[in-house]
Amino acid sequence: MKDFDDVMTIVGSHGPYQRRVLLGIICPTSVLAAMTMNILLFQVPVPDHWCHVPGQENTSYSHEAWLNLTIPRDIKTGKLSECHQYRVEWTTEQGNQSFIVHNDTHACDFGWKHDTSEFEETLATTNQWFCEERSYSDHVYSINMAGNSVGTIVLPVLADRFIGRRLMFYIALFIHILFTLPAVWVSNYGFHLTLRFFAGLAFETNYMMPYIIGLEFLSPDKRTAATLFSFASWTFGMCLTSLVSWLLPSWQYLALVSCVPSALAFAYWWYLPESPRWLLSQGRIHECATILLNVARINGKKDVYRTQLESDLYILWNLQEKEVSLREATRYPKLRLRALILFFMGACSYLCYGMVFLGITVLSSNYFLSHFVVSISELPSNALGWMWTHFLGRRFTCITTFLITAAFVAAAPFCRHDKWVMLAMVAFIRLFCTQLIYVVYVQCTEIFPTPIRSTGLAWLIVCGLATMISTPFLLHPIPLKHSPEHSLCHTRNNIRTRTHGYISCTPKDSFTQPPITQMTLFPLCVTLTDNDTVIVIHNATGLSQTTTSRRL
């Protein structure tokens, strides 16, 4: 008896029980985890918005005409200003109301209105996080990723050493629900960030615990296929998130819906077993044997007996490898170099993935359709990753995928003028980026020795999540000066910054771009008389034009 895989061969490492694990544990929990994480994307967008200027109800102007009259436009994009309005002065003479629209602008005095064609409410619209506070929505996403990083470091370690993977799975589910529900009703910026951070602690653990438990019941030659099924289920979960968010375009409802997968996952209390390898490492031989006997029963192995099984497990427990830390293992130069390369590849691939993950906010096409198309483009990457690694080898696949991804990234800025071509380019980038993550996962499980394999995988994920924290700020760089010219963000600047992030990982000039937006302030004056409305427009050259319209 050499290792635990020999015991699994006795009770059956490929049979009905393994199919139950694959289709009943790994795939469903991957779908639920994908929905839990992706649904945040539909809570943080900042839709087109403009100053609310009261008084339209007292006039005969349509909504569009009132906006054109009271809100300046950007000279390059032609969009309404998000942070400024013309000064409107109302007067009453002999019982008749009149107003004057002056040629000077100022900040929004009465709040904002926003485009509701896609989103009824987002975090930004509910809390009025616009202009100087526009980046607050990015902070919510980043703090959630920071919570993911911390949770990935802490919770799996607690699971391996003290609590167990099964119990930690349910603790993580409870943490997510506990801190997500209050966030729906908390409007204070600091408190909301705190809740989002603690809610983020649970995400990666929600995915890792059932995934690791499921893999331990499979033979080594079937684990690559299990990873393929897990990635495919994740893709299905992301596509399902697009549909749910389209049906419920309000962030409060989406936040509540994000708790539904965690609540449903508690049904696994009667189905998900504890990790037999963890039970063996803790010396809980009787419990480990009970689980393995159930595996043998379902797989039709009738010649397996508790006495012999416990005897074999005792032998393995006495021969199990001494627990070592990642720091001790990386004292070996070759292993240390391979670990650093893996972590660097993980950081680059996650950064690229995160850019496209959030990059749909800068596409001009429908937000939900963009997310669906970009998500479903991951599906072929799972099969391609398995085929390439199986027939061409891990290292060749990794290098080739890196180069192909870089080629598409380099070509993306030249396709920005056609939204569908750009969407296709982003879909290909995400396809090969997902394939790259798949290859890095496979290499990580093979390069690190058994005692530190889960620790190495956790640190790989931490390096990736750490880079994803910066993605909102790379896509929406914070200007050095707060001015109207810096309040709007142009697609070209987003794509340029995103491309730098893909290639160099640390863009040098994402915070020092020159002003790309100039506000055109058309001086005008509108005066209402008792009988007719006389509009006098003074243009930039000093000429005047007078038009007469019907009475209000």
Task: Sum this structure up briefly.
By secondary structure, the protein is mainly α.
Tell me what you see in this structure.
The protein is mainly alpha-helical. It folds into three domains: 1-44 and 132-320, MFS general substrate transporter like domains (Growth Hormone, Chain: A), CATH 1.20.1250; 49-114 and 522-549, no CATH class; 328-514, Growth Hormone, Chain: A, CATH 1.20.1250. Helix content is 60%, strand content 9%. It has helices at 4-11, 16-38, 63-70, 123-127, 136-163, 165-183, 189-200, 203-216, 223-247, 251-265, 276-281, 285-298, 306-319, 326-329, 333-359, 367-376, 379-391, 394-411, 419-447, 453-468, 471-475, 484-487, 491-504, and strands at residues 49-51, 73-74, 84-93, 96-107, 112-114, 519-520, 524-528, 533-538, 544-549. A three-stranded antiparallel beta sheet has the order 7-8-9, with no helix packed on it. A two-stranded antiparallel sheet has the order 1-5. Strands 2-6 form a two-stranded antiparallel sheet. A hairpin with a 5-residue loop joins strand 8 and strand 9. Helix 2 packs parallel to helix 9 and helix 16 crosses helix 19 (419-447). The model is unreliable at 480-552 (pLDDT under 50).
SSE arrangement:
Blueprint: H1 4-11, H2 16-38, E1 49-51, H3 63-70, E2 73-74, E3 84-93, E4 96-107, E5 112-114, H4 123-127, H5 136-163, H6 165-183, H7 189-200, H8 203-216, H9 223-247, H10 251-265, H11 276-281, H12 285-298, H13 306-319, H14 326-329, H15 333-359, H16 367-376, H17 379-391, H18 394-411, H19 419-447, H20 453-468, H21 471-475, H22 484-487, H23 491-504, E6 519-520, E7 524-528, E8 533-538, E9 544-549
Antiparallel strand pairs: 1-5, 2-6, 3-4, 7-8, 8-9
Helix pairs in contact: 2-8, 2-9, 2-10, 5-6, 5-7, 5-8, 5-20, 6-7, 6-8, 6-10, 9-16, 9-17, 12-13, 15-19, 15-20, 15-23, 16-19, 17-18, 17-19, 18-19, 19-20
